[in-house]
Structure formats: structure tokens, C-alpha cells
Amino acid sequence: MRRRKAKKIAILPDPKFQEQVVTKFVNNLMYSGKKSLAFKIFYEAIDLVEKKIEDNSGLDVWKKAIENVTPSVEVRSRRVGGATFQIPTPVREERKSSLAMKWLIGYARKRNEKTMSQKLAAEIIAASKEEGAAFKKKEDTIRMAEANKAFSHFRF
Asked: Is the four-CA dihedral 77, 105, 16, 34 of positive or negative sign?
């Protein structure tokens, strides 16, 4: 057990859009402390999204993609009397956004486009249209929680 709660570190807003959520996303996107490169990849991806979808801004499409990928419930393993059950539990607010970002970035990395910014742009567009691997992950998570609803009385 911890002695005291961990302090929340204040995250500065990003230089272009002045949004904290963008900085959190870029922090997840970053490898080996290369933040400027991660910002460059993100901004290029947003520009590509703007070029492909003309009717609204790239940042709005990105926000819609994050919203579409955000899970409401998840399953957690719990041992009860020698058996392990998958128990559906609601997701905390901070965890919701971090899961959505991690899924979006993870599945963007697995795509087949040439550069990371192209991969990210394609995954953002797919997620905003409720398609793509990240959205499928959310659907699978909800489906698994639905299937294991019978064990929800084991919730801790």
C-alpha cells in the first residue's frame, strides 16, 4: 500500500491548439523522450485528416475519433474461491481517455501506410467514422463485459 496518494502532474497545453488533451496524446505517442518529433507526427496527421475530410477541422475529427473509441465498461480478472472470473466494471474518467488514446496509437502503429503520420491519420479517420481496429477493440471490450454480466455481483 502507498503511504499517500501520488501527486497529479500538471500537463501544459500544446503550442498549436492550446489543448491539454493533445499534449496527453502526444505524450503517449512519444518514444524515448522525443517529444518534438511526436508533436511533428501528430500535427502532420491532423493536417492529413483536414485534407482528406474537408467539411470540418482535423482537431474536431480527432476529438470525435477519441470519443468513439472511449470505452464505458471493461472486464477485470478476479479470483473467487479458486476460479478466475472476468467481472465487468465501469471505467474511471482518466482511464477512459488514456485507454482510448493507447488503443488509437497502438492500432495506428500496426497499420500498413508508409509514415507514422499517415498511419495515425488513417486510424483517426476510421475511428471518427466508427470503423477501424481501435473502434473494434472498444466494441469487443463492451461485448465481453456484456457476456460476463452474470458475474457482476462479484464486484469489489
From this structure: positive
Over the stretch 78-117, which tens digit does the pLDDT of each residue have?
888 888 888 888 999 989 999 999 999 999 999 999 999 9
* H or E element at residue 37: helix 35-52
CATH class for the region spanning 20-154? mainly alpha
| pTM, full prediction | 0.89
∠ CA 113-115-118, nearest 5°, is 65
pLDDT digits (tens, 9 = 90+) for 26-74: 999 999 999 999 999 999 999 999 999 887 788 999 999 999 999 999 9
Residue 32 C-alpha from the chain's centroid: 20
**H-run or E-run covering 78:** strand 73-80
Could you tell me which of 112, 116, 151, 153 has the C-alpha nearest to residue 132? 112
Q: Please give the backbone phi and psi of residue 2, each rounded to the nearest 5 degrees, phi first.
A: -80, 155
